[in-house]
Amino acid sequence: MEKEINSSGEVDDFMGAFDLAEEGYSKDASMVKAIDPWDVSGNVSYSRTYNTIKDKPPTGVPDDRHWASSKLTTNLKLKYRFSDDLYLKLNGHAFKDEAYRVNGRSEYSQEFLDAYEEEVEVDEFFVSYRASSWLNVALGKQIVVWGTSDNLRVVDVINPLDNREPGLNDIENVRVAADMMKVDIQLYDWLLTGLIVTEIEKDKEPVLGSQYYPFDTPQPPLVNPESEGKDKYEFGASLSGKVLMVDVSAYYADYYKNQANFYWQEGLPFPIRHLADLTMFGLTGTTAIGDWVYKSELAHIDGLNFSSGQGHDFSRVDLMLGVEYYGLTNASIALETVYQKITDFVPFIANSLELPGESERSFAFRFSGDYFHDTVHFLFLALMSGPLGEDGNIIRISMDYDLQDAVTVGLETAFFGGGADVAFDYLSDNDQVSANMKYSF
Amino acid sequence: MDLMAEVVSARSIMEKVEGRDDGNNSVIDLTMTLVDKKGKKRIRVMRSYSRDQGADEFGTMYFLKPADVKDTAFLNQSYGDKKKGDEQYLYLPALHKVKRIAGSDKTDSFMGSDLTYADMGHIDLDDFSFEILKEVYVRDEHVWVIRALPIDDSTINETGYIESIFFVQKNNYVVVRAIRKLKGGKKIKYTDVKALEKIDGIWTPTETHIFMKKGKKVVHQTILKNTSVKYNQEIDADLFKVNSFYRGL
């Protein structure tokens, strides 16, 4: 047991400890350089994934249980500062998955290999110019994230997602960038942002042959908005500031839904897909009291289409409530829930291929912690559909260890729980364990 | 009577420590070396900006190294009006967003170091009782040795310390050493200012070693070096707005 430091004489005993402190570490510490015009960073990672519960597939279907994935990925970020007010940013990623060569490439369709075997893609490529202390303009391929929720999306509608591996994609690459012009105007303590999006993108989705694709036939063709005579732009605006101690934002977007809808065209025996033209008004609020952060999002969305909707547009109200707790040492807990209600629901749309419910609920629970002087990072994330999560869920548990500043190794396991939600139910065969190593530079 | 005089004297010294000139604003480049019990080192590099605005204090910190946290940024808005409390925001580049975070518990480790957020802020003198234990010399400088005891459990929970000994240099009121006993009683944290410089007229620790001992063993160390310090510069007020995070340094 340690001695109490409770008298002047005993302080001397503790003083001796200072002599033990090593001298001269500062000679090894790297000096901070002035901010360089060039900024290059990124990472290279390898992950190997095993499917843990899948049954042996029938003849003619690739047996990918042991080599669900063997993926080498690199992310590269470049930034060049022309001046304090002008910079160019280029982020990109590439991956190559060797699992399909091991399992036999001939067993997969070309569409599948195009989506999952390899990819080189520019994620962001834009110029940002601060014209004055109150005006900033950014032009190019960008990612804009709206709202306060970390796991469930209500007002975050601008950029689509990469959902080819639902719930599993690394957060670094989960959003798909789009060409846009973004103008930020600082009005005292309020920020007004305007967006014109010139590249209409939709979510990247699983394709036929993927373990995450629920059908036996490929998706019907997608009609782009231009060929339907629709606008080829999306627009958005936001206003953010503070009222009392609450961070508040208001959002408006005239945009295309990021997930395609089905519709029946006269004379065709199969449905066609298109992107519904939506408008969204949203409000968000966040405040912190003590160790708690309280978050909320409310959105009203107009223009929803369904395959049996007889050409009518429908409206939906989405409400997100969330809390985060920071009272644990070096850890935080977050719980978010979203309630969605189609306000003009009619029973006949329930038979649509999109399988809409009049109201739907989803939850997300996250526990994250950094331990042993930030060398061990733990994450538990549960995404649940249904009032109590009984319609389906995805649970991810991961632990990473920093071998060095630049090298991290990790283990992750994902459990897919089926339920009434068809999308989740199909995924329930995909429980998996993956090991990974990442080098950052 | 003498005892009262001593208490007041210790408190008045600590008032001068807390009231010491730290500039109206500052730009500091920091290198933090973490050393584990096996001697393995990890290095964090940061740039911090601070700015006083009346009774309010604003601080922004950008993380430059290691690569996996590069461009992460932290903003703290501390208001003189205590009813407002502190407001903290974290920019996570991988998420492309700024998160509001909470932090009334200041015992979290700062970036995996031996420093906590409580160590990096001011202390509320009313939460402690002070006592001068003795006067000694540290590196040939005359110092007061002052013991600080938290007045209640809530202060212990908030700071993480059950007892602190501060070594206050007499000629400049800088705490040049500290011995702090952690809640739980098994670990003791030692802070030693190895280099102290007068920069722009302000006494500034430019190299500080913090080491944690459990029993007789040093279980972890942090070497904090300010590689560049500038006070009272013209600092763009936009640096202390969350929107500036998206632009980065």
Secondary structure layout plus pairing:
The complex is a heterodimer of chains A (441) and B (249).
Chain A: H1 8-20, E1 38-51, E2 69-81, E3 86-97, H2 99-103, H3 110-116, E4 118-132, E5 135-142, E6 178-187, E7 190-197, E8 222-223, E9 234-243, E10 246-256, E11 261-263, E12 272-274, E13 277-289, E14 292-304, E15 314-325, E16 331-342, E17 359-371, E18 376-385, E19 392-402, E20 407-417, H4 422-427, E21 432-440
Parallel strand pairs in A: 8-12
Antiparallel strand pairs in A: 1-2, 1-21, 2-3, 3-4, 4-5, 5-6, 6-7, 7-9, 9-10, 10-13, 11-12, 13-14, 14-15, 15-16, 16-17, 17-18, 18-19, 19-20, 20-21
Chain B: H1 2-18, E1 25-36, E2 41-53, E3 56-65, E4 73-78, E5 86-92, E6 97-101, H2 117-120, E7 128-138, E8 141-150, H3 153-159, E9 161-169, E10 175-182, E11 187-199, E12 202-214, E13 217-231, H4 244-247
Antiparallel strand pairs in B: 1-2, 1-13, 2-3, 3-4, 4-5, 5-6, 7-8, 8-9, 9-10, 10-11, 11-12, 12-13
